[in-house]
Amino acid sequence: MIRIELPAHLRTLARVGGEVEIDVPPGAEGAGAEVTLGALLDALEATYPVLRGTIRDHVTEKRRPFVRFFACQEDLSHELPDTPLPRAITSGAEPFLIVGAMAGG
Amino acid sequence: MSGVRLLVGTRKGAFVVTSDGKRERWDVTGPHFGGWEIYHMKGSPADPNRMYASQGTGWFGQLIQRSSDGGKTWEPVGNKFVYDGVPGTHQWYDGTPHPWEFKRVWHLEPSLTDPDTVFAGVEDAAMFRTVDGGQTWQELPGLRNHGSGSRWQPGAGGLCLHTIVLDPSNAKRMFIAISAAGAFRTDDAGTTWRPINQGLKSQQIPDPTAEVGHCVHRIAMHPSRPRVLFMQKHWDVMRSDDAGESWQEVSGNLPTDFGFPIGVHAHEPETIYVVPIKSDSEHYPPDGKLRVYRSRTGGHEWEALTNGLPQRDCYVNVLRDAMALDELDSCGVYFGTTGGQVYGSADGGDHWTAIVRDLPAVLSVEAQTLS
Questions:
Q1: DSSP state of A87
Q2: What residues in A contact B60, CB-CB < 8 Å?
Q3: pTM metric for this prediction
Q4: Residues B27, A67: Cα–Cα separation, whole Å
Q5: Could you give all domains of chain A from N- to C-terminal order, each with its CATH number?
Q6: What domains are defined for chain B?
Q7: Is residue B156 scored above 90 in pLDDT?
Q8: Is the minimum CB–CB distance between A53 and chain B shorter than 8 Å?
Q9: What is residue B146's predicted lDDT score, i.e. its pLDDT?
Q10: % pLDDT > 90, chain B
């Protein structure tokens, strides 16, 4: 079970309150493979289809410019989709943070 | 019991504003989608309780919301807008080629007959259509692939398709406008398009009478006379009496012919409304006076409508989709401002009141006449 913290607008859109918890299908990246950033996003969008297009582009799957990914005090925003997630994330010890970047005024 | 429902899109959410036929007291509900930009909302002429809203932010992109109960509840529908084929390039501000990139939906135009069919005008300029109530959207690529597409250049607000006018007498005919490409018409339900800009003169482009490149701000039509079109251009108010084949300037005695919206009276096809704005670099009314101008002669001769509108220290703008008219016997006229006011007149513009004063900046206003 992976815990994900969504920004407020996306919680409203997905009609969830606090953190969401999702299962990333075992073996999605091959038997015994680690859970990757891309697999987490795939599973999140499969669970909440309304989020498709709001975090990453429908077609290119590039992260939207003002969305950031944080995990275990690290910024994973610029990591590739096949980047393995930290053990603390995959174990559910720490939440994976999807953040709307600070912008505007 | 007749009534009016206004659909108000703002920088920070949507509001639904209702009144009975007297239009003296208004009930404001919202914000729906608080914190999101609502570029446009519109109800289906075939089923007024079916509505569509364009919702977005710079953070999380584009969403489309649909209501089937007159705006009480909403559900997100499809938000996948993918250009047909390899999209190619248009011109960037500096004249260099720039890839076509979807940014947002500016305008939603429901079909006149089918609540599940809606046309969407988007930035970068293209026309999309849904026939399943917004679940899926397909481009009508004949417009973007018109031979001039690679020469289209964005206006200050982006390369946006912001106006869609459906011909009630001919289901295959539609008019659209793009900033800053101009007006286009299809006569085959969107398969092919051609520019209809003959007579427009724009000093801001190298060839002022070019086939494309004009910054058309808004087009309006009275349903009883679908060959007569009225246009507010970047500068100039224009009319066409031949379905856009040619245009004549009708700015007449307006204090300035720059502006954004233009509307037609519900029962008087030659009565039209504009809101003059000082200039393209000063987006506020001249002299700090918010004045709607009405022509009862289809242009040329204009009168200022000021009763109830601020006549000093007013420096708001009225955007292109932010004026609407109802169809009650005494035609109502409504507009929203970038200062968050929505003004209404229940007598064709003779007297105005502020229906609501302190909304976020208003992007769009649509009026539904309820029976």
A1: H
A2: 7, 9-10, 13, 54-55, 64, 66-67, 100
A3: 0.96
A4: 37
A5: 2-100 (3.10.20.30)
A6: 3-177+256-370 (2.130.10.10)
A7: no
A8: yes
A9: 83
A10: 95
